[in-house]
# Entry
Amino acid sequence: MSARNGGGADTVEMRAREARLASRTLASLSGEIRTAALERVAVELARQGDRISESNATDCTRAEKEGLAAPLRKRLRFDGGKQLQAIAGVRSVAALADPVGRVLERRELDEGLILTRRTTPIGVVAMIFESRPDALVQIASLALKSGNAVVLKGGSEARDSNRVLASVIHDAACAAGAPPGWLQLIETREDVGRLLALDTYIDLVIPRGSNEFVRYIMDNTRIPVMGHADGICHLFLDRGAEPEMAVALTVDSKTQYVAVCNALETLLVHADAAPGLLPVVGEALRKKGVLLRGCPRTREILPGIDPADESDWATEYLDLLLAVRVVDSLDEAIAHINRWGSGHTDGIVTGDARRAERFLREVDSASVMWNSSTRFADGFRYGLGAEVGISTSRLHARGPVGVEGLLSYKWILTGRGHVVADYAEGGKVFTHRDLPGGDNEIL
Amino acid sequence: MSARNGGGADTVEMRAREARLASRTLASLSGEIRTAALERVAVELARQGDRISESNATDCTRAEKEGLAAPLRKRLRFDGGKQLQAIAGVRSVAALADPVGRVLERRELDEGLILTRRTTPIGVVAMIFESRPDALVQIASLALKSGNAVVLKGGSEARDSNRVLASVIHDAACAAGAPPGWLQLIETREDVGRLLALDTYIDLVIPRGSNEFVRYIMDNTRIPVMGHADGICHLFLDRGAEPEMAVALTVDSKTQYVAVCNALETLLVHADAAPGLLPVVGEALRKKGVLLRGCPRTREILPGIDPADESDWATEYLDLLLAVRVVDSLDEAIAHINRWGSGHTDGIVTGDARRAERFLREVDSASVMWNSSTRFADGFRYGLGAEVGISTSRLHARGPVGVEGLLSYKWILTGRGHVVADYAEGGKVFTHRDLPGGDNEIL
# Structure
């Protein structure tokens, strides 16, 4: 038995249905089996390293022939060192505490009538990601750890690598007790389109890719989508902000890695601070190669820069470009962010705790920062152990999402023949007494 | 200033936008102000009782003229006694602990770099409910408590009552500091249709009503929907189930209140137990006026009943009707429920703890019961303090949903100028040390 791949409407539906069936078995496996399966995956990835390297070489050769840009070719490469890293990643996911069956609350409703709310897998998760083959290994590991079946769609450049990796991971897990079909691979954009219609089989879609691609997914499915389209992040340099800190945080937020969703895109500066701060901040950014676009008041202070208009407030550059606007007050900064931001990550640089508190409270974003870089908004840096993605939704998971984002829960009620009529008509009264949690055993 | 009502596309959009604006202010009010606003609401509902009674009399008179059925007219009535109950309900919501700003986790990422995850309101919640005016009072109270703006659509029979109640509640809360526009009322199905397109202003829709209506909502909006269409609940009488308990739980699950989503719709009986159990269970149900529809093997034991086919397995009767099927094994019972059920509430009656555990683990439903009635699946009985609805989704909230279902969270990071470059390139290492929770103050 191996992970299936291939396309067409019937095939995609068949594979989604297989994943749904497998998900039921997977959800009821013990944590020991899921962990053992992950360890087996790590062993097989190591044992079949040559086969994996060969498939990756095929992808890399094709990419070179087709003239793929050098940075993309670099991301595509999955050599011995990256394989070792990926295998270490699988082992670290295996070592995480079992997230499934955890007691979230437990309550005595009446004598002998005990209610327990426990985590469960969501069911079937579709993940759509980009070129790096390591992403497939990480996502499959997280799904297996959390008891979810997965349908994966990787970048077409990595087609051969993904096929081999999916097959090795699927088969290794099955050899350790995972149900056949728990991991499915699809390969074309057309098949993604078909998958998006299968809301009876797929519980959650997690797309990672360009803004346009994520937005296309969000606009074209009834399945819940976890993720974010834009990451238009702001930093507000308040009046009285310490210049050295203002410079350091602006430079780090903007330039530490420009092509990512938590990078700074618009800098807001309090009018009282602008004449003092903008020249030093501007100079520090210039040295890093950042081009500025400013509002009229910014350009009075930094006359050499390009003008910014409303379209800049709404743009995620993902490049060495930064929009700058001078605002008259904390209120105006908060209003700008809530109007133009994407609810991803926004920060304030200030020495005034009361003003910081207002900002943290009133800015309606998944992550809000005081005197720290927007670039910290990330599952690994937040200490979540692993990152599934970053969500700008207010439902389910918000901000950097760890393995918890792949979990749901169920309510389990155990009684001794208790009936509702006794409470509704018979005078019995609920005790509703909260109880300590207990272990991961159902009973 | 009063709660607005009235219709048309422009008006609905204007009101949704007003609710969004108000939601930002509401979300940053202190718990004290939200509680004081609820107390003011209780006072004003009492003070304006005559005005409320008059509007309700108008609705009741119109309902009688239009020949509305007696049970619906009874639900529409909002007399002195019901008003007192509703006011007591507002006061009990006011007395709940503040759900907003609660610390869900807190972690030191490094010295002086502290991450806190706190509950926040979701934002703007649209609730669509049926005829009872008391529902409006309860829903508005829960929204105010949790800091959410609301757009409400009540039953058209209760039009006059709803207008007065919305106006009294809105104005009373505003007098205590809530932002004008936090509560909006819309009145027609056409306006609901318009509302469903406004996903930039509305974060969550909670529909309560007929299966068809909920399904229509789910099929016609990109806004997340919390709720359930069907409640096809099962009870499985296992081999060796104690007859007295089997009878009591079947009768309570089916007949304690037939018109609700957690009432029993299909009874599954283990083949070994069927000859002994079905005659006594059938007789007890017959005495309660329940008509049975059975599979061929059920009809061998109870020859007088109507036949059931697959369409019965997929039907929520909400009536004195029960489908009955004999199954050969626990596996077959679980498979039937996962195939035909709606993931709402399903139970097993058995004396065998290991078989109970398999059922509780493998049945993929929001609530799973062992030796207790399906009718317990309810927010009040579960001890949630208040019920927003029951969800069969696996994302966000599942099963009976209390005020927590109206909450999201945000991540708050406070530092002293920390930058990511120091960790990525500079050799600094995260400590990732979990910290105790702390209080509801942001800083």
In short: Chain A is about 40% helix and 20% strand. Residues 9-28 of chain A form the longest helix (20 residues). The first strand of chain A starts at residue 103 and ends at 110.
